């Protein structure tokens, strides 16, 4: 039955590696039966009691790992498939796995490689130590395009294409989503692909369509390198190059971590999350948010470099190297998370309540930066309109309140206009992303302020 299930899954387009996950779940169930001596001679003996014992077995042997949840899900898929297709007729109705049987999924930290590790991997001297031309190009594609390894090794020789404007793209089949996808690349990678096609066709594989054609057709008939063979070569290369992390311990590098790294790099370059989602070809923003998160150091670098003024237009001096630097940064993070405002940030500790019933521009705890200049100018226009109408109607109290707000706005705008610091470089290390992404990002930056909603006066 397990073999029949695996064969059927392969005919639906599932990759061999994905089908193997299902067979491993069946192996775990078999190991559970062997260890407990439960008399199960067929599917008729698999009832809810047996399944609960299997769940306890998995909890004992795989608790706290991703394998735990994966084994439960794969075994449940087998039960559902057998029922749906009528492969068995004696499976008890109570042989089911319910939602509450799955362990609670914890929010995992992103697995992006640090720039310290990436600098070593992208070092030309280390890169030259990777002997196979196949492996070198695969590594470049993984780093620059963020493809999954199973999609990368299956690339065909017609994977490079251009749009009507002449911009190059990499076209590939997203096996997980079962759809074709495109990712922008630069001319350098396009030339590398063209040169690799000449190399493949000159090694006795002139009749193949595969970009990474194997010297012989492998046992699955795919005709290209397997993901496992590249993963093995990658680990060997990392070990030979003596790649270490910041603590000096050997770095743990896997093909999928390059995907996380690209997502994190793009986010830290201020590329909008929607653009990152499209580049990684995710269905949901939730997945993109997991893969690519702003690093705390990036946010802090922005915070330290920004010119900050309070509601009266006075510059707020913060010493990033002072004895209270870490405490001040923690306070700033907490304030941004719990008391963020549309035109600045509140510096009031969260333990206190705001004593000011007026707008935040009359509050001494208000802090803003040049990022909000478009909002401040728009706000000033609205205040002037309100003042004119209030004066015409003789509403002195309204005039008094908004005159103070207008004065503060003028001082804020004047102070922030005096000096607007350049944004610091957010990209450390080698491996620049493709030019199309950078150009799109700079255009988004220019329009971000004008598209933001204006605060209410």
From TrEMBL:
GO terms for biological process: DNA integration; DNA recombination. Residues 108-304 form the Tyr recombinase domain. Residues 438-457 are annotated as: Disordered. Keywords: DNA recombination, DNA-binding. The keyword DNA-binding applies. It holds the Pfam family Phage_integrase. Belongs to the 'phage' integrase family. This is Tyrosine-type recombinase/integrase.
């Amino acid at each position: 039955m397990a073999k029949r299930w695996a064969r059927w899954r392969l005919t639906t387009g599932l990759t061999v590696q994905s089908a193997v996950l299902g067979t491993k779940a069946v192996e775990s169930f078999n190991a559970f039966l062997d260890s407990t001596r439960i008399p199960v001679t067929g599917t008729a003996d698999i009832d809810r009691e047996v399944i609960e014992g299997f769940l306890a077995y998995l909890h004992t042997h795989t608790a706290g790992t991703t394998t735990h949840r994966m084994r439960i899900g794969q075994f449940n898929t087998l039960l559902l498939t057998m029922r749906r297709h009528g492969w068995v007729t004696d499976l008890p109705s109570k042989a089911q796995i319910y939602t509450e049987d799955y362990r609670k999924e914890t929010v995992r930290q992103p697995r992006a490689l640090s720039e310290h590790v990436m600098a070593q991997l992208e070092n030309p001297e280390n890169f030259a130590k990777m002997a196979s031309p196949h492996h070198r190009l695969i590594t470049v594609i993984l780093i620059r395009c963020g493809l999954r390894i199973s999609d990368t090794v299956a690339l065909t020789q017609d994977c490079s294409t251009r749009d009507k404007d002449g911009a190059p793209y990499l076209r590939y089949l997203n096996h997980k989503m079962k759809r074709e996808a495109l990712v922008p690349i630069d001319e350098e990678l396009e030339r590398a692909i063209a040169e690799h096609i000449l190399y493949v066709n000159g090694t006795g594989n002139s009749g193949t369509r595969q970009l990474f054609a194997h010297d012989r057709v492998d046992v699955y008939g795919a005709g290209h390198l397997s993901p496992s063979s590249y993963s093995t070569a990658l680990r060997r290369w990392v070990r030979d190059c003596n790649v270490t992390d910041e603590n000096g311990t050997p770095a743990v590098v896997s093909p999928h971590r390059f995907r996380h790294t690209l997502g994190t790099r793009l986010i830290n370059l201020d590329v909008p999350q929607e653009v990152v989602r499209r580049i990684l070809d995710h269905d949901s923003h939730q997945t993109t948010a997991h893969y690519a998160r702003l690093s705390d150091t990036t946010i802090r670098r922005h915070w330290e470099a920004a010119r900050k003024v309070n509601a009266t237009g006075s510059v707020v001096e913060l010493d990033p190297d002072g004895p209270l630097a870490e405490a001040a940064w923690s306070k700033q993070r907490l304030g941004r998370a719990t008391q963020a405002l549309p035109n600045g940030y509140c510096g009031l500790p969260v333990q206190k309540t705001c004593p000011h019933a007026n707008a935040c521009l009359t509050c001494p705890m208000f802090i803003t930066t040049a990022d909000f200049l478009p909002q401040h100018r728009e706000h000033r226009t609205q205040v002037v309109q309100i003042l004119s109408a209030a004066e015409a109607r003789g509403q002195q109290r309204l005039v008094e309140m908004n005159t103070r707000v207008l004065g503060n706005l003028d001082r804020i705008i004047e102070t922030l206009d005096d000096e607007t610091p350049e944004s610091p470089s957010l990209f450390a290390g080698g491996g620049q992303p493709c030019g199309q992404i950078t150009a799109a990002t700079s255009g988004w930056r220019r329009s971000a302020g004008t598209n933001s909603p204006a605060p209410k006066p």
